[in-house]
Specification:
This protein is α/β, with parallel strands linked by helices. The chain has ten helices and eleven strands. The strands form three sheets. The chain has a six-stranded parallel beta sheet. Strands 3-2-4 form a three-stranded parallel beta sheet, with helices on both faces. The radius of gyration is 19 Å and the shape is globular.
């Protein structure tokens, strides 16, 4: 068996096209332009690239992009004051504070100062609670992207056994909640799980989000399972830098029914879902119907 490749790059392009079409309709029919504000503190190179890509794709979808680049020594009071201004700005529908923040800033305090309705990362404690209790919330972008790809591949997920390897607040926990919401039977596995290999082999859907390169080999994968690899790890192989996932792709692809590659799988969906969340936030703020297919 050779697994079908779930092309996240192509799927993300489709999502961005849907977002752009909805934005154009909002402008024409309501005179509304969704706006996304991204706040970057410091000069982390990876974060700078990521923020630049977000800004470019925001504008390409017809949205307003507001970038706030602050020096690394910015005080907590200054950052919270900026967030308060963005919370009050009707032109801003989504606010994203790029993580990680410099060590002198309290990330939890900063994230929880964002208006939950504008929290397009889905990290605010109110959104975490709403998601966990099955209520309408802003959903973290990476798990939302994974869910979209799974729905597209399977149609209904009801009754499938799903194993999420990793229990982070950013991916593992919200991913499990989303799969529960789609009526999967869900197991969260982690570093302390007994016989992790056996747990993984029971999965119809296997989501790997642990941040350990190629930790999950092909013989941990149930024949025909769908494998969603969230990991992005930089390793050196044959004297060259290479990006690999948390799953050993070559061996898993011989067993799985479908698999996301790294790069080009889950990664592109994260920004696409950020744009979808900004559109959703704009619609909710104005009492308009939410775009179909772009929410959980």
């Amino acid at each position: 068996m050779t697994a079908a490749v779930i092309d996240g790059k192509a799927f993300a392009a489709k999502v961005r096209a849907q977002v752009a079409a909805h934005v154009a309709k909002l402008k024409e029919e309501q005179g509304l332009t969704p706006g996304l504000a991204v706040v970057l503190v410091g000069e982390d190179p990876a974060s700078q690239v990521y923020v630049r890509n977000k800004g470019t794709q925001t504008v390409e979808c017809g949205m307003a992009s507001f970038e706030h680049k602050l020096p690394a020594e910015t005080s907590e009071a200054e950052l919270l004051a900026l967030i308060a201004r963005l919370n009050a700005d009707p032109a801003v529908h989504g606010i994203l504070v790029q993580l990680p923040l410099p060590k002198h800033l309290d990330s939890d305090l900063v994230i929880n100062s964002i208006d939950p309705a504008k929290d397009v990362d889905g990290f605010h404690i109110s959104n975490v609670g709403l998601l966990g209790t099955g209520q309408k919330s802003m959903v973290p972008c990476t798990p939302l992207g994974c869910l979209m790809m799974l729905r597209d591949h399977h149609g209904s997920l009801a009754g499938l056994n799903a194993v999420v390897v990793g229990r982070s607040n950013i991916v593992g926990k919200p991913m499990a909640q989303l799969l529960l919401g789609d009526s999967c039977t869900v197991t969260i596995a982690h570093s302390r799980t007994k016989d992790l290999a056996a747990v993984c082999r029971g999965a119809d859907i296997l989501v790997a989000a642990v941040g350990r390169p190629e930790m999950i080999p092909g013989d941990w994968v149930k024949p025909g399972a769908t494998v969603i690899d969230v990991g992005i790890n930089r390793i050196e192989r044959d004297g060259k830098q290479k990006l690999v996932g948390d799953v050993h792709y070559a061996s898993a692809a011989l067993v799985a029914g479908a698999i996301t590659p790294v790069p080009g799988g889950v990664g592109p969906m994260t920004i696409a879902c950020l744009l979808a969340n900004t559109l959703t936030a704009c619609c909710r703020a104005n009492g308009l119907a939410e775009p179909e297919g772009l929410t959980a």
